[in-house]
Each structure stands twice: as C-alpha cells, then as structure tokens.
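In the laboratory, one determines a bound structure by crystallizing the protein with its ligand and collecting diffraction data. In a computational setting the workflow is compressed into a single prediction: the sequence and the ligand go in, and a structural description comes out. We illustrate the idea with adenosine-5'-diphosphate.
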Amino acid sequence: ALAQRLRRAQPGPLDSGTLVYAVASGKGGVGKSSVAANLAVALARQGKRVGLLDADVWGYSVPQLFGVRRSPVAVKGLMLPIEAYGVRLMSVGFLVGDGEPVVWRGPMLHKALEQFLSDVHWGELDVLLLDLPPGTGDVTLSLLELVPRAALLAVTTPQPTAQTVASRVGRMARDMGMPVAGIVENMSTVVCGDCGTPSALFGTGGGRRLADELGTELLSGIPLDPALRQACDDGVPVVAGAPQTPSALALSALATRL
Ligand code: ADP
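The predicted complex, in structure-token form:
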C-alpha cells in the first residue's frame, strides 16, 4: 500500500515504475549507511531489481560495506554500476583511490551526482536507494533537486538529541514537498550477551516521536547487534552474511514494508 501511494506521488524523469527512497539522517553515526546497504540487499533477496547510489560523498561507505574495491567500467559513455549481493552500486568511493579524501567543491559534487543519475547505466530498477550525507547540506539539497520524486526514509536512534536533529531533515523534506515514507529507528535496544535481556541503551521513543511529529509511520526498530558491526567491518552485508541475527531479521522485515 505504501509503495502504491508513493508511486502515485513520484512522477519524474527516472523510469516511472522505479520507487526512489532517500535514506537520510540528522547526523552521522546513527547507522544510515548500514540501513541503506542492508535494505538494498534485503530487497534484492526478495527478487527486486535494486540500485544503491552512495551520495554520502565525503563519508562514502558503500565500497567498505559491500567489500568492493573495483572501479566501474564505461561502455559507450555510460558507467556500469558495480553489482554485489544482487545490488547495482555506484559510489564516489569507486572513483577515487583507496582511502583518498574527496576534496571537491560544491559545483563538482553537484556535477558528479548528476552524472551518477544520467551517465550510469542503471538499467531497469524496481527500487533506487539514495544513501544521503547526514544533515541538510548542499549535497542533500542538490540530490533532492535532481530526484524530486524521492521519498524520505529517515534514520534516527531512540535518543532525544538524535530525534531532534533528524526532525530537521523531516522538515526539509516537507518544505521540498517530498513524500515521507517513514522512520527507521536504529540501535533501538541492545541485547545482553550474558542473559539475553534487551535494554534501551540509547533511551526510548525517539523514532516514535519523530514519526508522530512528521505524521508518518515508524517502520522498524533495529537492535544494536554485534553481528551487524562485524559484518560492516568484514565487508559483507549482514542480511546476506548472517541472515538469522536480530539486526538482519529486522532489516529484512523492514524491506517487506516498502
Ligand atoms: P552513518 O551512515 O549514519 O554514519 P553507519 O551506518 O556508517 O552510520 O554506522 C556507524 C557505525 O555503527 C558502523 O561502524 C556500523 O557498523 C555501526 N552500526 C550501525 N548500526 C548498528 C547496529 N544496529 N548494531 C551494531 N552496529 C551498528
């Protein structure tokens, strides 16, 4: 039902059947990229044709999260996305040397993002996920101008401060007339390694309050899970490498709601 509603709300230049979600957060470190990457893999495992555009140009992490070091090849002037775990990937990280910082200024970044949309042979996609930089800066605005039909998927932690900064992203979306697909609360609980009891390390309610404030749904609560952290470090998305772990199950369930 959500997909149907968004499809109607998303007329635009990309193939009109493609659902576009902009995965955003108020600040860094809340797990936005981990959510975007694993959601992409979970959707692909459901049989969807999925693209993931890493627009977190300074803090790009898609190469690390997918364990990919290759550079994309170009065919007839179009770059081919790199495919891993069934997802078509594009990232600034594929274009700069290993560990090199991106020192481009605004206009170059805008151009690069434009090219990621127009000069990459995405092929037919059911879903395109955009991993946005944290906050409401230039790159976020540029990209949302380039893809006005994207629906916002806001990632926050349960902490009140995280929720407050995330709400700025929500207000930006509203000001730009973007549909809001929902809220993902990451690091919702932590499960004690000894006794298995879940506890609310980062407090409770941030995701719910943000959803209420933006008049949208809290789609998922993803637990703090050592398996997810390990998978990120190993370069294997947790939903592929350890699909029965608590975080992987939550991320797969989230994919069924989009
Ligand atoms: P962001 O994109 O918001 O900056 P990342 O996705 O890069 O955040 O996550 C930051 C760090 O936190 C990474 O090392 C990641 O592995 C870890 N992390 C994110 N979510 C979880 C989780 N639910 N459980 C355990 N570790 C997590």
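Residues 11 and 149 are 6 Å apart (CA to CA). Keep in mind that any predicted model is a hypothesis to be tested, not a measurement.
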